[in-house]
Design a protein that fits this description.
Pfam families: PCMT (PF01135). By secondary structure, the chain is an alpha+beta fold. It is built from nine helices and 17 strands. The strands form three sheets. Strands 3-2-1-4-6-7-8 form a seven-stranded mixed beta sheet. The chain has a seven-stranded antiparallel beta sheet with strand order 9-10-12-13-14-15-11, sandwiched between helices. The protein has a three-stranded antiparallel beta sheet with strand order 5-17-16. The relative contact order is 0.10.
Length: 337
């Protein structure tokens, strides 16, 4: 049996000491959305918190994660949690006082970080910003690390978790992207780099094609999926779907798209053939859906699935990842190694 590391023990000990029901509510409905405790534990292990650390949390939520971190960093450490919603920070502050935690709860705009207590050893962001503000990196100590929700493409479902370590100049030193995601910090706006088509009779049935000014093509692809659906048992099953989806985003094939279909939400490819006809195929976590059994889009999608499998069915964290600076913010992207 493999021995537990001290860090794993620290999170496990904190889990035993901090009852999740106190913060999430006995029925799990106290704060919505509420990050599952198992996800919080996983990200705290990734952060590698140590006694005495100075930690910033952006997105107070239920208050549970900051209580766990306070337990881990101990009396010589400090945890500050920031949220723009005063109801959340006031609720958390009362819980911390009641249960003996010294977390500092602040109502403020998390996009600015919290310079008053900087520099930080670790920053945990329990939400997905439009892009990572440079202020967060500047408020980290050299070799400090940040975990944040990120977008890795302009497709609606392209959410992931980035783990970023900075160098002595507060620039990204190491970036690893994991599958998963947090609720957006602000309502996402339609990206100008995609084209969207919606079924007038069923607004929930839509298709988003990566590429600007292709609305007519997107509409034709949506019609093809809607009117000529052909489904087969998927080659991508369960949790593997998310890893395949992120690999496909990294591969960036022409005609990359996402679609919401009666059979599920999926990612895939679309194309027009020489005769002008539209073809589309998507993979969901259970099925592959295409416009026809002999669809060239289906053939292309199956080829891509085969390529992913041949490369070892790469997990999201095995992809290449980087942050690129854009007007004072950092955008995450993934690539095939």
């Amino acid at each position: 049996m493999t021995e537990a590391t001290p860090q794993q023990d620290a999170v496990a000990n904190a889990d035993r000491a901090v009852p999740v029901e106190t913060y999430h509510g006995a029925d799990g409905q106290a704060v919505r959305p509420c990050t599952p405790a198992a996800v919080t534990h996983r990200h705290l292990r990734m952060l590698d918190l140590r006694p005495g650390a100075n930690v910033l949390e952006i997105g107070t939520g239920s208050g549970y994660s900051a209580a766990l971190m306070d337990h881990i960093v101990g009396p010589q450490g400090q945890v500050t949690t920031v949220d723009i919603d005063s109801k959340l920070t006031e609720r958390a502050e009362k819980l911390y006082a009641e249960h003996g935690y010294s977390v500092r709860a602040v109502t403020a705009d998390g996009l600015l970080g919290y310079p008053a207590q900087a520099p930080y050893d670790r920053i945990l962001v329990g939400t997905t910003p439009p892009a990572i503000p440079d202020a967060w990196l500047q408020q980290l100590k050299p070799d400090g690390s940040l975990i944040s929700g990120v977008r890795i493409a302009d497709l609606p479902g392209a959410y992931a978790i980035a783990h970023v370590t900075v160098d002595e100049h507060h620039l990204p030193q190491q970036v690893v992207v994991h599958h998963g995601g947090y609720t957006p910090m602000v309502a996402p706006r339609p990206a100008p780099s995609v084209s969207r088509a919606v079924d007038p009779g069923r607004p929930e049935f839509e298709l988003i094609l990566l590429g600007a000014d292709q609305t007519r093509t997107a509409a034709a692809l949506l019609t093809a999926l809607r009117d000529r659906p052909h489904t087969i048992q998927g080659l991508v099953v369960g949790d593997d779907y998310f890893h395949f989806k992120n690999w496909l985003i990294a591969a960036g094939p022409q005609g990359l798209l996402e679609a919401v279909h009666d059979e599920g939400v999926g990612i895939g490819v679309g194309m027009r053939t020489a005769d002008g006809s539209a073809h589309a195929a998507i993979a969901t976590d259970e099925l592959i859906i295409a416009d026809a059994p002999d669809s060239p889009a289906l053939e292309r999608l199956q080829s891509l699935i085969g390529q992913w499998l041949d490369e070892g069915a790469l997990r999201t964290h095995e992809l290449g990842a980087k942050l690129s600076c854009d007007d004072g913010t950092w955008r995450a992207s993934v690539s095939r190694l």
